[in-house]
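This section describes the prediction task in plain terms. A model, or a person checking by hand, is given the sequence of a single protein chain and must write out its three-dimensional structure as a string of tokens. No templates, partner chains or ligands are provided. The sample shown here is typical of the held-out split.
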Amino acid sequence: MNTNENNYNLNEFFSTLGIEQIVCIDDQYRERSEETLNELIGIGTANGTEKFEELTGKIPQLKEIAFDDKDIWQMQFTKLWKELTEKDKRIIHSHLVENENTNDSQKDEESAENLKDLLHGSSQIPYQELSFSQWKAREAEYLEEENIGRTLFLIDRDLSYEGGRTDEGIYIIKKLLAESEEAACGLLSHTFEADNEVDRWEALSKKHDLDKYRFVLTSKSRLRNTKEESFFQNLKLTVLNKHCKKLKEKVSDLISETNDKSRQEIEKLSIYDFEHIVFRSSYSEGIWEPDTLFRLYGMFQRDVFRQKAKTDEYLQELTNKIRGISLLPLSHHSDSPDTSWKIRRLELYENGSHINALYMPLELGDIFEKPGETNEGRKFILLAQPCDLMVRSDKKGKRKPDMYEAILAEIEKPMARHKKKECQHLFYELPYFDKNTGETHYVNFNRIHTVPLCHLDLCVYQPDGSAKISTEQTCPNMVIPMWKDHFTHLKKDFGKTVTRYNEYKEFLEKKSVKDEIKKEMKKGILSLVLPKSSNSKKALFKGKIQPTKNGGSLEFNFRRAGRFRQPGAGDMLMKFAHKMSRMAFEHDFGRNTKD
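The expected answer:
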């Protein structure tokens, strides 16, 4: 990389990283000895000198050798060998010996040269190239150095050309990290591309029991001319890794201290306050008591943590150091796959398997799915004021008498109309909605359905979130008290529907009833007995009753699949209310109709 073409120079770059010297370990740096010379002459004698002649473009001195004379060329080549640079010797050896079976050596050779040009050509930072044998001879010297934490070690993974293992670089890194927590190590390899670095990094760390937060894996493809900037991005991450590990450890320690302090604050609560806040107020509002206790704990924890964090000098020092490195002016960002959206998605959405397994009450933002012809089917989101969804203790398991239905809005995949400015008020953006791709979906405020809340409530009592109930079912123990009372009402009401359905069905099975009457009644009366899931002409969800000896079960073809968390869910409800309450103006007849 030519630093003149970038808005920083290497000396400033490494100074910011805190690097005072660079050590590269690669078997490409080994000396090609007289033994190597004899090996090359033997190859030329046995197989001809055509491969030597192919290199005259890279090494012009070879043009002076009379390769067509079997006696003279060996003497001339022997004399030239002593005059060649180690780089030229490596090129010849790679081309004639190592490249006979694979191109890997040639790639390593090119990478080694590019690495030197990048790190040493425009930098005053001491730069050393060590072969594996040289490293073994000087290993103790480097491990004992006081400035090991200010040294950047870049190590080739495969050192087998000098008798090392194919993963020898990893074992060198393990020694370095065992000696000093400050060591900054990068493992280089041509066996994978840049977009596979993260997966291979994870796999190698697990296989070799190596702390992945103390080294960075770098593909040698980043040393190609088109990706040189990305190589420096990985160097930055190599040094940044150890500082980020320290920051995580420091924050973890602070959290432990904060937990102790928060627990002390909870213990200070008098029995009078504790009983009133945690139990009486929670019960009256239909809230599970431990949730209120967690709320108190979080309140104390947040205040204590901020106080400790702001006054901790080491935390401030680490943060400043990481910030300085992170903001180094590199225009290129990592080629590795960005998975940060998955973490953000955890903050935005609650997993259906979690809320259903815990039998959590219905809430604004609950997401429901209906199976369709495709695997995905249709998805809907609940739009209702949170207070109206509550089942409070004073209602004995019932909601407000006027709260019977709620609105489900359809969730759509992105289309061109979602981007139009004039349509913005008709949709609400759900970022990272697709759990596999992170693709944004949209809530369509125009495609809404009114659905009886009692049908949605059924999802609360099933561990898979399905909308069903049985006359033989008992309420799960994990359900909070008010919703246990609510279950009693649901079971009683739906039980009447099942009983009525069974009575009609039993009547139709009598032989005295004519076939024509049976046919009409099956179409009409039985379908009327089934509860409707919406006020639309065609019910949104279909109900199905399965009779049994002691009653039966009722099931609708949908399930609760997740939840859009607050404050996003509240913002969505506010935008929906704004859309529904917008002013209606007379049409603008002065506008050009051709527009």
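For orientation: The longest strand covers residues 551-564.
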